[in-house]
Write a structure and sequence with these properties.
The protein contains 14 helices and twelve strands. It is an alpha/beta fold and 329 residues long. Strands 1, 2, 3, 4, 5 and 11 form a six-stranded mixed β-sheet that branches. It has a four-stranded mixed β-sheet with strand order 9-6-10-12, sandwiched between helices. The chain has a two-stranded parallel sheet with strand order 7-8. 45% of the residues are buried. Bound molecules: alpha-D-glucopyranuronic acid.
């Protein structure tokens, strides 16, 4: 259930009054907001993070998780973190585009050759650099969560090749990279917040969207979109973040516990992901969704313009993109 705007406002006022990290006698409670429903594997991973932190700190630090966009859209959550009114969040790397130009490269279509390449990049030096790249914006990236691969889902017809996107309003995240990608493939990109997407699809404000299988399933968008075309155009990870204000209020030992708990939750989440993908595909098929596997080559051909635009508008990102492309799995 999404909250009404009034309820969101009341929540925000409450959060602002209480601050991102609440001191309850001797227990610190870190508030963590995110946009997914509680059945989604990333929600379980965040709950696990909280449990591990509580155990490590002997009950002195707790994490209270607010799911379902209760505290705001991903962009709003990041902004609340920046001012220290919220302690932690988990957002898609695409939602960090406006906050860290470096992280925006993760939104490039067909950036990774395969899962091994992606893991090598995100778990290695480059991944570490990307996580700390947000620090100048008062955000500290703690770890990545696997968010699989994103593919198109549509209301009226399968997408066999990019030409089928012509004339369709495709919901994208608030991300220039995603806008350029959909435009490059021939569709009409329309940014809509994740929590408002079900209604936007239902009411025909958009004709289609794109996401990984667990999100397509858990958001129930499959009730409206009966065609899922697995072109796997992007593999944008999720990022777990803590406000630097909260991070700096922790002593060194507490910071280590939090970092360890985040790392352990990433391993836990990775373990949940494969099964969540299989379950999602199984369940949406049962609900009457037609799944197709279009040739990726057709989509790949259309996205060179997205890279060219980045090289032209943000030439400083070119060496990073090359390092990612050259990373060996
Ligand atoms: C993924 C991601 C979410 C994000 C969503 C979206 O599901 O994990 O963090 O909100 O995509 O498309 O907005």
């Amino acid at each position: 259930m999404q909250m009404s705007r009034r309820n969101v406002f009341v929540f925000l006022v409450l959060i602002l009054a209480l601050g991102g990290c609440q001191l309850d006698t001797n227990v610190k409670v870190i508030k963590m907001g995110h946009a997914q429903v509680v059945s989604h594997p990333v929600h379980n991973a965040m709950v696990f993070l909280g449990q591990r932190l509580e155990e490590k700190s002997g009950g002195r630090i707790k994490v209270k998780v607010y799911p379902n966009q209760q505290l705001g859209t991903e962009r709003e959550l990041v902004e609340l973190l920046q001012i220290g009114s919220l302690g932690m969040t988990k957002v898609s790397a695409a939602s960090l585009e406006a906050f860290s130009p470096e992280i925006s490269v993760l939104g490039l279509p067909y950036l990774f050759r395969d899962d091994a390449h992606m893991n090598q990049v995100l778990k290695g030096e480059i991944g570490k650099e990307l996580l700390v790249s947000t620090e100048k914006f008062w955000l500290r990236g703690l770890c990545f969560y696997d968010a699989g691969k994103r593919s198109f889902y549509t209301k009226s017809k399968p997408i066999a090749n990019p030409e089928d996107l012509a004339g369709l309003k495709i919901r994208v995240q608030e991300s220039k990279m995603a806008i350029n990608m959909v435009r490059g493939m021939g569709g009409s990109p329309t940014p809509v917040a994740y929590g408002e997407l079900y209604t936007a699809l239902q009411q025909g404000i958009v004709d289609a969207a794109e996401n990984n299988p667990p999100s397509f399933y858990n958001s129930r968008h499959y009730e409206v979109c009966k065609f899922y075309s697995i072109d796997e155009h992007t593999a944008i990870p999720d990022v777990v973040l803590v406000s630097t204000k909260v991070w700096e209020s922790l002593n060194l030992e507490e910071q280590n516990w939090l970092q360890e708990a985040a790392n352990e939750s990433a391993v836990y989440q990775e373990g949940l992901w494969k099964e969540a993908v299989e379950e999602a595909l199984r369940e949406v098929i049962k609900a009457g969704v037609e799944i197709s596997y279009p040739s990726k080559a057709h989509f790949f051909e259309k996205v060179s313009g997205v890279y060219e635009l980045v090289f032209k508008e943000q030439p400083q990102l070119e060496p990073l993109i090359q390092r990612i492309q050259q990373a060996k799995e």
